[in-house]
C-alpha cells in the first residue's frame, strides 16, 4: 500500500488558496494514470494537507493509511517555505534544498519521502505549453505567437528554466518571462509596465500564461487592472498553470523520481482507529456536530441539528469532495480554516459508501478519528505551547515573545468556537466521541490560526 500527500499553502481567509491541491488530489483519486502512455498511478490513497488551514501539516501524516508515504509540495518554486517551513512542520528534520530524489525519513513507523516542489519539475513546461495553446483561438498557429510566462517572483530561476526549455522546442515564435506589476501601481507605473510588455512581443499576437498555483490571492484583479489600458499587442490570457489537468501527470512523474519504491504495509494504529469508527457508524452515532447513520449499506452524514428533516429538504452530496466544498464555508459564506469550529453549515446530507467514508470524514474533521482514538488509548502525543512557539521562524518567530497571559487571552477568542479541548494548554479531556461524548475531540497542538493570532497580538503590543 502507498499513500500520496499533496501539500498546499492554504489560507486562514480564502478557500480559493486550496483549489490547486484539491483539484489535483481529486484527479489522482480518479482514473488518471490508467490510460495508455500516461504515468501509472501507484498510490492507493491521495490526501491533502495545508500550511494555513486544515488538514494541517502537523496532522496530515497521522491520517495516512499506509507505512509508505510520498509528500509533494504543490508549490511552483523552491523557497523558504518548501525548504524550511514545510519539512519542519511535517517533522522531517530537514532544512535546505531538496535533492532530485527527495529526502526520506522514518517517522512513527512510516517511511516518508518529501520531494522537490511541483513547479521545478521539467514536465511543467508541457503544462505551460498546454495552457498557452488552449488559450489561443482554434486554428491559431502557435509558431506566430509569443508566449509570455507571467511570474510574481522573478529570480527564482524556475520560470526562466521552463522558458528556455520551451524556446528550444520551437513551438512558439518566442518565449519570455515577464513580472506582474507591483500591487497598487500608479497609472504611470501601469503604463510603463504595458510598454515593457509590448516591447517583449515581436509578433502580431501573444499569449500570457500566469505561472501561479491557483486563481485566488488577488493576482487576477491586479493583472486585469494592469491589462486594462492602451499600448498592448493582441493578447490572450490563460488560466494559472497550477490548476491545469496536466499537473496530475507531472505529480506522478515527480513522485517517481525516488526510483522504484517497495509497497508499504497497512499502518496498524490507523487501521484500528478506523475499524472503531466503522463500528460506531454501523450502529449510528455523533461526532462533533455530525450525525452518522447507517443507510442501506451506505452511511449518511448530516448536521445533528438537521436530525429528523426530510432528505428532500436537504442538499445531498455523494462524494467526499462535494461534502468538503460545501462545508468549507459557514452559513454566512466565510471560509472555515479550522474544521472543528462550531460553524458547520446546516442543510446538507452526504451519503457515502464504506470506501468513501474515511475520506469524507478526513475532509470534514481532519485527524479527529486518529487523534481521538489515540487519546482514548493514552498514546496521543501532545506538543505544549512552549515547544510549538520555540520552533517557529520568520514572521512567526514573534510568538516566542508572547507571555502566557497573551497566549491565554488570544486562545480564549480563537478557540472559543472550536469543539476541540486544548490538551497542549493543560486542559483535560475525559471522554471522546468514541465513548459517546460528541464534542469530545482533542487538540494536541496549537493550530496555525492561533499561531497567527498570537503573532498579531505580540506585534500589536510592540508597535
Ligand atoms: Fe481549535 Fe484552538 Fe486547537 Fe486551533 S488551537 S484547533 S482553534 S482548540
From TrEMBL:
Alphabetized UniProt keyword annotations: Lyase, Metal-binding
Keyword Ribosomal protein set for record: no
Domain DR2241 4Fe-4S iron-sulfur cluster binding positions: 378-455
Endpoints of the signal sequence: none
InterPro entries associated with the record: CbiX-like, CbiX-rel, DR2241_Fer4, DR2241_middle, Sirohydro_Cobaltochel/CbiX
Domain of life assignment: Bacteria
GO MF, any single term: lyase activity
A Pfam entry, by short name: DR2241
Domain DR2241 stabilising: 270-375
Keyword Glycoprotein: no
Protein name: Cobalamin biosynthesis protein CbiX
Organism: Deinococcus wulumuqiensis
Biological classification of the source: Bacteria, Thermotogati, Deinococcota, Deinococci, Deinococcales
Amino acid at each position: 500500500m502507498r499513500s500520496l500527500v499533496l501539500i498546499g499553502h492554504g489560507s486562514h481567509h480564502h478557500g480559493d488558496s486550496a483549489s490547486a491541491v484539491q483539484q489535483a488530489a481529486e484527479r489522482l483519486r480518479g482514473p488518471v494514470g490508467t490510460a495508455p502512455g500516461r504515468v501509472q498511478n501507484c498510490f492507493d490513497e491521495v490526501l491533502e494537507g495545508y500550511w494555513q488551514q486544515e488538514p494541517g501539516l502537523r496532522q496530515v501524516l497521522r491520517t495516512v493509511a499506509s507505512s509508505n508515504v510520498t509528500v509533494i509540495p504543490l508549490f511552483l518554486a523552491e523557497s523558504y517555505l518548501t525548504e524550511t517551513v514545510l519539512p519542519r512542520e511535517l517533522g522531517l528534520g530537514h532544512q535546505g534544498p531538496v535533492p532530485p530524489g527527495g529526502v526520506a525519513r522514518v517517522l512513527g513507523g512510516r517511511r516518508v519521502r518529501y520531494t522537490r516542489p511541483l513547479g521545478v519539475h521539467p514536465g511543467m513546461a508541457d503544462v505551460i505549453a498546454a495552457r498557452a495553446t488552449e488559450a489561443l483561438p482554434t486554428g491559431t498557429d502557435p509558431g506566430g505567437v509569443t508566449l509570455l510566462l507571467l511570474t510574481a517572483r522573478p529570480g527564482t530561476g524556475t520560470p526562466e528554466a521552463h522558458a528556455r526549455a520551451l524556446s528550444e522546442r520551437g513551438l512558439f515564435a518566442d518565449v519570455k518571462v515577464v513580472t506582474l506589476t507591483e500591487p497598487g501601481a500608479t497609472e504611470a507605473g501601469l503604463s510603463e509596465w504595458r510598454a515593457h510588455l509590448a516591447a517583449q512581443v515581436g509578433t502580431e499576437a501573444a499569449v500570457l500564461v500566469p505561472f501561479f498555483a491557483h486563481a485566488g490571492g488577488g493576482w487576477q484583479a491586479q493583472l486585469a487592472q494592469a491589462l486594462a489600458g492602451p499600448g498592448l499587442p493582441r493578447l490572450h490570457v490563460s488560466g494559472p498553470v497550477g490548476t491545469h489537468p496536466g499537473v496530475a501527470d507531472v505529480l506522478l512523474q515527480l513522485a517517481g523520481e525516488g526510483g522504484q519504491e517497495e509497497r508499504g504495509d497497512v499502518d496498524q494504529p490507523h487501521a484500528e482507529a478506523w475499524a472503531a469508527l466503522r463500528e460506531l457508524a454501523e450502529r449510528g452515532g455523533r461526532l462533533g456536530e455530525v450525525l452518522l447513520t447507517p443507510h442501506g449499506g451506505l452511511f449518511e452524514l448530516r448536521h445533528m441539528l438537521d436530525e429528523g428533516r426530510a432528505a428532500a429538504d436537504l442538499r445531498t452530496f455523494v462524494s467526499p469532495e462535494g461534502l468538503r466544498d460545501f462545508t468549507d464555508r459557514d452559513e454566512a459564506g466565510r471560509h472555515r480554516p479550522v474544521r472543528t469550529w462550531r460553524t458547520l453549515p446546516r442543510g446538507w446530507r452526504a451519503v457515502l459508501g464504506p470506501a468513501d467514508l474515511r475520506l469524507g470524514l478526513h475532509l470534514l474533521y481532519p485527524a479527529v478519528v486518529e487523534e481521538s482514538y489515540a487519546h482514548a488509548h493514552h498514546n496521543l502525543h501532545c506538543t505544549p505551547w512552549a515547544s510549538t512557539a520555540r520552533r517557529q521562524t520568520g514572521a512567526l518567530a514573534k510568538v516566542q515573545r508572547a507571555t502566557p497571559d497573551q497566549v491565554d487571552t488570544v486562545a480564549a477568542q480563537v478557540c472559543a468556537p472550536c469543539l476541540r479541548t486544548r490538551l497542549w494548554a493543560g486542559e483535560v479531556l475525559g471522554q471522546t466521541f468514541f465513548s459517546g461524548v460528541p464534542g469530545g475531540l482533542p487538540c494536541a497542538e496549537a493550530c496555525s490560526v492561533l499561531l497567527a493570532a498570537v503573532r498579531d497580538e505580540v506585534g500589536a503590543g510592540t508597535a
